[in-house]
Design brief:
Elements: H1 5-19, H2 23-48, H3 54-63
């Protein structure tokens, strides 16, 4: 899987902040990189997964905080 533009930008920010000894900014950039990679993984999963049934959709909504199940 290749990096999305957001993940590549975050990875570059981690490297730059580490190089210039800015630990707080490097930590923030690492968090941004983890979020970008997670987003990429979720997007890949959704694009390749079969369509869920209505019951599965309801469980997913509840899991993600969008439902009352």
């Amino acid at each position: 899987m290749s990096l999305s533009p957001d993940a590549a930008k975050a990875r570059a920010a981690v490297a730059a902040n580490e190089r210039w000894n800015r630990p707080e900014q490097a930590d923030n950039a690492r968090r941004d990189l983890r979020v970008a990679r997670l987003s990429d993984s979720i997007r890949d999963l959704v694009e390749t997964a079969p369509l869920p049934t209505p019951g599965q959709l309801a469980r997913l909504r509840a899991l993600l905080g969008g439902g009352n199940d």
